[in-house]
Amino acid sequence: MAREWNAVAYEGLSSPQTRWGAEFLGHVDLRGDEDVIDAGCGTGKVTGLLLERLPRGTVLAVDGSRAMVEAAGGRFAGESRVRVEHQDLLELEVEEPVDLVFSTATFHWIKDHRRLFGRLAGALKPGGRLAAQCGGEGNISRATRATREVMSRERFRSSFEGWDDDKNYAGAGETRERLEAAGFEGVETWLHEEPTRFGSVGELARFLATVVLGGHLEKLPEVEREPFAGAVAEEISSVDGDPLLDYVRLNMTAARSGGAG
Ligand SMILES: C[S@@+](CC[C@H](N)C(=O)[O-])C[C@H]1O[C@@H](n2cnc3c(N)ncnc32)[C@H](O)[C@@H]1O
């Protein structure tokens, strides 16, 4: 099962992810009556924007973190068009196949994209669509370099013995191939840049601790977590004095084969 997240902190800090999710959603054609899965719904901020586009539709909001599911469940309490479920997307099961799988800022947390795309295809009606955005090739390379440097420091090194990186920033070409192999057609994949600047090194450190370094912090004793995130933020900013994350988003749209058209 996917790891736990700090849902309260994510709700407060995830305005970049919400903004990209809103922009991406703006390019998805919807009639308004579709049944949709939000794959990796988090606290449900982007799910809420999706729901506004579905006055006669439904959303099955799925997440692998119990804290996220609890937050999203609270957000949509009493909303009959939304069901929130705790599920690992790599084991995704649905009662009825849906018209669209939508997802933002989630797939790069999942190592096995072949299996993921197979499960998503299985959750779609023939001809049903996938529209997803996540971190892609080259994403936050400044943070990746800085994190490796800080992990190798004497103070933190022993906590990361045998560490296997927890992100999967896939390229556009390999993603297209994996989607086609999973039974999707009309596949389009592309990368775009979203450089994101923070107001201060401290602000960047708080963002990193919640959104980027959660898996790393789990490896560290409680007392070392804040210093680790702070050191990574300092290291990123030391390049040119700029607390900036060089985000790169991987976008993908496709249809499950077997549709009428
Ligand atoms: C950065 S948050 C994105 C949340 C929301 N979609 C947004 O754009 O703000 C990533 C989410 O993916 C979920 N996640 C990661 N791996 C998962 C998996 N294997 N199965 C289900 N959810 C997963 C995490 O629990 C987390 O809530």
Topology:
Elements lengths: L6 H7 L1 H11 L9 E5 L5 H8 L5 E6 L2 H10 L6 E5 L11 E7 L8 H10 L1 E12 L5 H11 L2 H4 L14 H10 L2 E14 L3 H12 L1 H6 L2 H17 L5 E13 L5
The structure holds S-adenosylmethionine (SAM).
S-adenosylmethionine binds next to helix 2 and helix 3.
| Spatial strand sequence of the major β-sheet | 3-2-1-4-5-7-6
Number of structural units classed as domains: 1
Count of DSSP-assigned helices = 11
Look up the CATH topology.
Rossmann fold
Structural class by secondary-structure content? alpha/beta
CATH C-level category: Alpha Beta
How do the helices and strands follow one another from N- to C-terminus? Answer: HHEHEHEEHEHHHEHHHE
- DSSP E strands, number: 7
Radius of gyration: 18 Å
**Helix proportion:** 40-55%
Shape: globular
CATH superfamily placement: Vaccinia Virus protein VP39
The appropriate CATH architecture is 3-Layer(aba) Sandwich
The ligands found in this model are: S-adenosylmethionine
- Through-space gap between termini: 36 Å
GO biological process, one term: methylation
Protein name: Trans-aconitate 2-methyltransferase
GO molecular function: trans-aconitate 2-methyltransferase activity
Keywords: Methyltransferase, Transferase
Features of this protein?
11 helices; 261 residues; alpha/beta; binds S-adenosylmethionine; seven-stranded mixed beta sheet; Rossmann fold; single chain; 7 strands
